[in-house]
Write a structure and sequence with these properties.
The complex is a heterodimer of chains A (331) and B (313).
Chain A (H helix, E strand, L loop, with lengths): L6 E10 L2 E11 L4 E5 L6 H8 L7 E6 L2 E2 L4 H4 L3 E4 L11 H11 L7 H12 L14 H13 L5 E5 L7 H16 L3 E5 L3 H4 L4 E6 L2 E6 L1 H6 L4 E7 L2 H9 L4 E7 L2 E6 L7 H10 L4 E6 L4 H8 L26
Parallel strand pairs in A: 3-8, 3-9, 6-7, 7-8
Antiparallel strand pairs in A: 1-2, 1-4, 4-5, 9-10, 11-13, 11-14, 12-13
Chain B lengths: L5 E10 L2 E11 L4 E5 L6 H8 L7 E6 L2 E2 L4 H7 E4 L11 H12 L3 H14 L15 H12 L6 E5 L7 H16 L3 E5 L3 H4 L4 E6 L2 E6 L1 H6 L5 E4 L4 H8 L5 E7 L2 E6 L2 H14 L7 E3 L4 H11 L7
Parallel strand pairs in B: 3-8, 3-9, 6-7, 7-8
Antiparallel strand pairs in B: 1-2, 1-4, 4-5, 9-10, 11-13, 11-14, 12-13
The chains are: A alpha/beta (331), B alpha/beta (313).
């Protein structure tokens, strides 16, 4: 176990019956690091965080938080960290303010630092004007933001955040990440899972998990540089058809739709350039607006590295809406 | 011209003195994929709940598949599918049991039931998983099962309220392929999302803030409404760069965009002079700086800020 690590995982494993949810994870998180964990659904992200938080005992291996073992002394681990789970406990019959105060009391946040922290959390969450509203009367995304405020009111050594931006709108996401960066700049260590790969790009390092194992771990820049092959962004009249044509084209390893463009990853040894891709699309009758060399994003890396994400979608994915399913007479 | 699939006219819902949805008007053509965007609390879910007959409007009117939403909700339910943020599956039942349950609710029986069950299992990629408990399925599979259950009765109109929150990027793509296939078959889809890349897949978008409509149009039209130039600044420390540039002369907004920073500016030439100077003063090196076309996220943030900010009332 490395000395000086904020968090150190050594063969951390968790089984549920026959299923190995987390399979021998070994890595360190440095003090003051903003560390991201990404991976497909069921990769073991949440299970890992729950073990680090001391709420789920490992089946094998161990992890230490500032040198304290989650196996030998889970209770001593808990005061050092704040853990925001996907189902964080809010009191729906308490107001926004009362919920935050409750967690501040629970974690013994000194009274003199509370007002400043509260203001900072209100600034990102826009919850200030609702501080007297019952938590039960908030929209789903606002409840999520309140959960985060409750987790962040106590400034622990380690933050464990499981999908903190689940259901949170783009503006609040920006503000939330600025607060996270501020806390990290003040020395807090944070481990964050997310399904937004653009968020993961802001982490110092990212672990990509699949089937309970680490399949890549590095800084986002190095992970992005590690993508083998050349990447092209294609804009076309019919993006889905363009993707299907490209995916079937020899030398194209992966073609996926991403927003308004198709990302095509061309194998290193394939002699394909932008002109060749354009020609292949036009030959198939797809009108092409542009084909440009693109820099890999973390999402491109994710898609290229994750082996078997979910069962393939099969069959006829549609049904025909018959004209007669419109009402015969409108009442 | 056939009647639009969905029409809302001055649709309004108040909870006490709080107006969650305020005179919202729009119409959706049959076969369209229509997206709702907006900050948390903007009224998207409340609008969907009114259109699905779960919540009575305080004022205004709506017609869905020709049915008055303030009228017979049984008739309305038969013509729509609805998938909420929470997926509305029974997690302590198996995959097959959930399908049976929804078939019973929608009155899908006999040969049609067997055909639809086979369709859901194939569509969701769940063949061979029929006896698994839903609680044990990965999120992306649950989501596809929930979609299958929502369209068991082949409704012409489908409502999806943040269907992909928290789902991984690959599962999200697979899900949108399904939505696209449904729309190609003639289904009208109304969907709310916080993922801007998904908003790109919608034919038209309705942007809401504080209960009101603040913009409507195709993704291309909405991007064209953003007239302020955007400069993408490469940096080794995005948060510090955002901090340094926020409030700088001529800078309207600075935000992290992946590892780079997007700076919305008043004037490009002015900004190209100001940004390096401001960053140098803060001891920050500057990498490449280039003008980029606005992303939908840039547009979203800009329109919401212009309309009085994201704080919801």
């Amino acid at each position: 176990m490395a000395t000086g690590a904020a968090v150190s995982l050594a063969g951390l494993t968790r089984r549920f019956g026959d299923l190995v949810a987390v399979d021998g994870l070994t890595f360190d998180v440095r003090p003051g690091e903003l560390f991201g964990i990404v991976g497909p659904d069921g990769a073991g992200k949440t299970t890992t965080l729950r073990m680090l938080a001391g709420v789920l005992p490992p089946s094998a291996g161990d992890a230490t938080i500032a040198g304290v073992s989650v196996v030998r002394d889970p209770e001593a681990v808990k005061p050092r960290l704040a853990y925001m789970s996907q189902r964080f406990g809010l009191y729906e019959d308490l107001t926004v303010r009362e919920n935050i105060e409750f967690y501040a009391d629970l974690y013994r946040v000194p009274a003199d630092v509370r007002p400043a922290r509260l203001q900072r959390l209100y600034r990102f969450s826009n919850l200030g004007e609702f501080e007297n509203r019952l938590a039960g009367a908030l929209s789903g995304g606002m409840k999520q933001k309140l959960s985060l405020c409750c987790a962040l009111i106590h400034q622990p050594e380690l933050l464990l955040l499981d999908e903190p931006t689940f259901g949170v709108d783009p503006i609040s996401r920006r503000d939330l990440w600025l607060i996270l960066h501020e806390m990290v700049a003040e020395g807090v260590t944070a481990i964050v899972t997310t399904s937004y790969l653009d968020e993961a790009e802001r982490c110092d390092r990212v672990a990509l998990l699949d089937h309970g194992r680490v399949i890549a771990l590095d800084s986002p820049a190095r992970l992005q540089a590690s993508l083998p092959g050349r990447l092209f962004a294609v804009r076309a009249g019919e993006p889905r058809r363009a993707r299907d044509v490209l995916a079937a084209f020899p030398g194209v390893r992966i073609a996926t739709l991403s927003g308004e463009s198709v990302r095509a990853l061309v194998a290193e040894d394939a002699a394909l350039d932008a002109d060749a891709l354009r020609a292949s699309l036009e030959e198939a009758g797809v009108s092409v607006h542009s084909v440009d060399v693109a820099d890999a994003t973390l999402e491109d890396v994710f898609i290229a590295r994750v082996a078997n994400p979910s069962p393939p979608v099969g069959g006829q994915a549609s049904y025909q809406v018959a004209p007669s399913s419109q009402p015969e007479d409108a009442r | 011209m056939s009647e639009p699939a969905v029409v809302a006219r001055d649709l309004t819902r108040a909870f006490g003195s709080f107006v969650a949805v305020d005179r919202v008007t729009f119409s959706v053509a049959a076969g369209e994929v229509y997206g709702f965007l907006g900050p948390n609390g903007a009224g998207k879910t409340t609008t969907i709940r009114m259109l699905t007959g779960l919540l009575r409007p305080s004022a205004g009117e709506g017609r869905v598949a020709g049915v008055d939403i303030a009228g017979d909700t049984t008739e309305l339910r038969r013509r729509i599918g609805y998938m909420s943020q929470k997926f509305s599956l029974y997690t302590d039942l198996t995959v097959a049991e959930n399908i049976e349950l929804f078939a019973g609710l929608y009155g899908v029986h006999g040969a049609r039931f067997r055909a639809r069950r086979a369709w859901v299992l194939a569509m969701a990629g769940l063949e061979g998983q029929e006896r698994r408990l839903v609680a044990d399925l990965p999120l992306g599979w649950k989501q596809r099962l929930a979609l299958g259950c929502a369209v068991l009765h082949e409704p012409p109109i489908l409502f999806l309220d943040e269907p992909t929150s928290g789902v991984d990027p690959l599962a999200r793509r697979a899900f949108w392929d399904l939505i696209d296939a449904l729309a190609a078959g003639g289904t009208t889809v109304l969907v709310s999302t916080h993922y801007m890349e998904e908003a790109e897949y919608c034919h038209r978008l309705l942007l809401m803030n504080r209960g009101r409509v603040i913009a409507e149009g195709t993704p291309v039209e909405l991007r064209a409404r953003m007239t302020e130039p955007i400069l993408e600044v490469e940096t080794d420390d995005a948060p510090r760069t955002v901090e340094a540039l926020t409030g700088a002369p001529g800078v309207i907004e600075a935000a992290m965009f992946g590892r780079a920073v997007h700076v919305v500016v008043r004037d490009e030439a002015e900004a190209r002079a100001v940004i390096p100077a401001v960053l140098a003063k803060h001891g920050r090196a500057i990498g490449a700086m280039r003008r980029v076309p606005p992303s939908l996220e840039d547009v979203f943030v800009s329109l919401v800020r212009r309309e009085g900010g994201a704080a919801v009332g």
